[in-house]
Write a structure and sequence with these properties.
The protein contains four helices and no strands. By secondary structure, it is mostly helical. The protein has a single domain, classed as Up-down Bundle (Four Helix Bundle (Hemerythrin (Met), subunit A)). It is elongated, with a radius of gyration of 22 Å.
Length: 161
């Protein structure tokens, strides 16, 4: 199994989330490359910690956007986040407590986990958030137009015919 490539079809449409996803892909690819080439040893601890930290941050960020946009599948998606994060934490903790090193099977599992999250789980959410952002921008545009009309109206009041 080759590395995961962060292509346009993985983009979420929110810069901070895309940045988090891009970094998660990079970490998983580093884990995959290292486990295929040679044992990771001390590096794997740092990479797994970073992946858990980043996944947690990413899930909180996505959940904040879901709340802002009134995403109707919020509870289901947030539950999925909790489950995925728990799996990742258990994997990391299990390796640490047993003093084991990552192997190809574990890294491929993590790669598939991330790919499925980005391609399947997040696709509907990304579409909903992009629609929400467009409507917010549209509302801001309408508000700006109304304010401009009101300012023009105030300037014309009291002027001589």
């Amino acid at each position: 199994m080759g590395p995961l490539v962060f292509t346009d079809n993985l983009k979420f449409g929110v810069a901070v989330i895309d940045s988090q996803h891009r970094r998660m892909v990079k970490i998983v690819n580093e884990l995959l490359g290292a486990v295929l080439d040679h044992p990771l040893a001390e590096t794997e601890d740092l990479l797994l910690d970073e992946l858990v930290r980043l996944a947690s941050l990413n899930f909180r960020t996505e959940e904040e956007w879901m709340r802002r946009c009134g995403y109707e599948r919020y509870e289901v998606h947030a539950e999925s986040h909790a489950h995925l994060l728990n799996e990742l934490v258990e994997l990391r903790n299990g390796l640490f407590t047993r003093a084991e090193h990552l192997n190809r099977k574990v890294v491929i599992f993590v790669r598939r986990w991330l790919e499925n999250h980005l391609i399947h789980s997040d696709r509907e959410l990304a579409d909903a958030i992009r629609l929400c952002i467009k409507s917010i921008k549209g509302l801001k545009g309408l508000k700006a137009d109304a304010n401009a009309k009101r300012r023009r109206g105030k300037r014309s009041v009291g002027t001589a015919p």
